[in-house]
Amino acid sequence: MADFVKASQVFLDNPATSVDEVLVFLAKKATELGISDDEQAVLEAFQAREAEGTTGMMSGFAIPHCKCAAVKNAAVMVVKFANDVAWASMDGKPIRTAISLLVPEGEAGTTFLRMLSQVAVMLMNEEFRSKVSATDDPDEIAAIINEGIKL
Description:
Helix content: 40-55%
Order of helices and strands: EHHEEEEHHH
CATH topology: Mannitol-specific EII, Chain A
CATH architecture: 3-Layer(aba) Sandwich
Distance between the termini: 9 Å
CATH class: Alpha Beta
Number of helices: 5
CATH superfamily: Mannitol-specific EII, Chain A
C-alpha cells in the first residue's frame, strides 16, 4: 500500500465556497506541510491547470492538481468542505471533496500520470466515493485513498 496520503494531509470542514479559495488553501497547506517551498508557484500551477479545463469530476468530487518545480515530493491532500463549492463539474453539481495531487515537474510524465489515472478510476467506483463521503476520520480517509494508489 502506498503512503501518499497522511492523516495530516486530510482537512475537514473547510469553509471554502469557490475554486479560487480552494486553490489558495491547497497552496498554503502544501507549503506549511513541506511539500513545497514556494506557495505562490504552487498556486500559479494550480490556477494554470484549472484554466486549461475544470478538474471538477462527478458526484461531488474534484481532482485539482499541479506539476511544479516548487513541489519537492509527490503528495496527495484531501479536503472535505463544510458546504458546497461552486466548481464547474462534469455532472454540473457542486463539489464537496477535493483530492489534490502535487507532483514535482520532473515526475510529470511518470508518477503524475499514474496517480491521476488511479484517482480518476477510484472516483468512478461508487463504493469508494461513498466510503470517502461517509467518514470524517482523517486516518480512514487516508487509508481508503492509499489503498487505491499503486506506484
